[in-house]
Amino acid sequence: MTQSVPAPQDARTIQLSQVFKSYGDYPVLKDINAHVARGEVVVICGPSGSGKSTLIRTINRLEEISSGSITLDGRNIHAPMRTKELNALRSRIGFVFQNFNLFPHLSVVENVSMSPVRVKGVAPDVAHDKALKLLDRVGLADKAGAYPAQLSGGQQQRVAIARALAMEPPVMLFDEPTSALDPEMVGEVLTVMKSLAAEGMTMLCVTHEMGFAREVADRIWFIDAGQILETATPEAFFKNPQHPRAQRFLADLR
Ligand code: ADP
Ligand code: MG
Known about the structure:
single chain, six-stranded mixed β-sheet, four-stranded antiparallel β-sheet, 37% helix, binds magnesium ion, ATP binding, ABC_transporter-like_ATP-bd, ABC_ATPase_HisP-typ, transport
């Protein structure tokens, strides 16, 4: 069996230790212990309702945890802090949602440049130029003046990625970024994600795109019923899953 070698402590961008979370009496995350190393791409997979979204949302504190700790570069994300501090911390963690969540009343370039201006105090013309470069990078230079409703789902999701990148986060989180897309648009979003990975971005992705996981992930976390049951390289996970529930999950995909 392939056991992933633990990263040295100082390379652990994200560290989750003994994380528990309940919704009321219902435990959703049960003793999560895991880390993401700098430059690592981790794909989280597991059945629907297993806690994948909750887990990833705790990392930028869109969800509170019941106990345990989560650190980003050694800083406790769930420590008591003021809204301003929390916003500053969140701006260091890019988040891409299933449903894009673009601002409908803002143009594409405004969607991308808004947070650097509002949260980081970047000069509007500087943020605008940078937004145009990011739109070029995701293949949407010609859509800068368009509004979200005028774009396809795949284009909107690429804008959402550019918007997250505009804050220059050291870490990007993705929660099923292609699940709401028509099949023909999945590839263009995965291509952008692959290029980010190739550039060394630290990424944590919840996805059902097992081709992407195989090709791009450094490690897979398999989660079921609120527990990480297996972490492995894609080679090991897909060829020789260890946990019976992982075996069943993979068998059901085929
Ligand atoms: P996944 O993303 O793997 O499908 P989720 O993290 O969305 O799973 O959900 C895990 C479990 O927590 C599910 O049983 C879901 O119904 C429950 N859950 C999610 N969000 C809430 C909430 N806000 N309140 C109560 N239960 C929730
Ligand atoms: Mg989910």
